Amino acid sequence: MRRLFRYLEPTFFAGLIDDPCLIVRDRPIHASIMLDCGSLYHLAKREMKPVRAIFVSHAHMDHFMGFDTFLRQTHASPRSVELYGPPGIADRVSAKLCAYDWNLTEPYWCTIRVVEVHRDRLEETAFPGPEGFARCPAGTRPRSGRVIYRHNHLEVEAEQLDHGIPVLAFRVNERKVFAVDEEKLAGLGYAQGDWLRELKRRFFAEWPEAGPLQVLRLAGDAVRTEPVADAADLYRQLAGAHDVASIGYLTDVGYSPENRERMAAFLAGVRLLVSECSFLVEDLHRARTSRHLATCDVNDLLAMVRPARYLPMHLSKIYLGRSAELFAQLKPPEGTTILRFPEHVAPRPLYACEMPSIRGGGAD
User: Fold this and answer.
1) Pairwise CA distance, residues 321 & 52, whole Å
2) Half-sphere exposure (CA, 13 Å, Cβ side) for 197?
3) How many CB atoms within 10 Å of residue 142?
4) Based on CB atoms within 10 Å of each CB, which residue in 1, 172, 318, 349 is the most buried?
5) Spatial strand order in the sheet of 31-35
């Protein structure tokens, strides 16, 4: 999947039937975001430490119970972690944090910043670790458009769907692509040089306040230095065309007409789609009753969205050992490749007979 993106490196830390967890790494800056956090006991600590933000689709156990594991591994570190989720997620996080005693806090502990994603606003709540994760309202800001998070090379959009409760679908877009069109460069009379490296630096720094950019201009057979006051405007003149590569993440939604319309519009053009496919077509009635997707729904969605790659997940446990039937029923459109994961990627559960004995007086 790495070849699909310039900066993003998605890794799905679950099997077809396991609780879902997708981590997207921003490769140039060695930072990550996490989409859903079901059971995370199998996840190495070094995979959790770079996570700067968690995006929770909804607070059912199989999508949220791993927050405790994540907190256990990261709470004693001097940083801030953001958590985005549907309305009511701050109450759920507060309840989890209140379930533990925090009498041994240290000044360097992390702060959890929870952002509830409403259709028209974002409500923020802080839980500072040095204060025992006490709940502190942190303000409300209006929401315009779908983008809820931006950081360096990526941005995250959210769309609210229905699962009997509000549930969020996410779209991760590659945000930072510095591309200068050489034909535009020559056509406007600029010469290549180290000034392009400085233009790139300012681009990635979000155009900080700085003095004029010293560029090279062609003057007949000679090259002269010339100051440009607005580097951002210069880049807009020189920028080349590029695709915005995206990852779509969709789970636990009913295939109602309203959801279908919202999903198709929200996920159109994603390069990688990771979505639930909980039921086979012969159990469509179960999908409708529990507000999940069946293989026929996914085929319809793929025909509309047409991603380059599709990764099914969250298959119901009633199909244990039958995953081949799922892949047989998926009929992607031309140009879409189905990615196949095993049913489980985590180690199997251990039995007492496999563990060292502590029953006797000596070691067995």
Assistant:
1) 36
2) 2
3) 8
4) 172
5) 8-12, 22-26, 31-35, 51-55, 80-85, 111-117, 121-128, 136-142
| Rounded distance between C-alpha atoms, residue 332 and residue 310, angstroms | 8
**Confidence at residue 358, expressed as pLDDT on a 0 to 100 scale:** 77
pLDDT reported for residue 243? 73
C-alpha closest to that of 345 among 22, 67, 5: 22
- Give the pLDDT confidence score for residue 356 in this predicted structure: 84
* Domains with residue ranges and CATH for the chain: 2-176+245-338 (3.60.15.10), 182-238 (no CATH)
CA 349 to CA 46: how far, in whole Å?
23
Under DSSP, is residue 356 helix (H, G, I), strand (E, B) or coil? coil
323: three-class secondary structure by DSSP: helix
Q: Tell me the residue type at 343.
A: E
Per-residue pLDDT tens over the stretch 29-50: 899 999 999 989 889 999 999 9
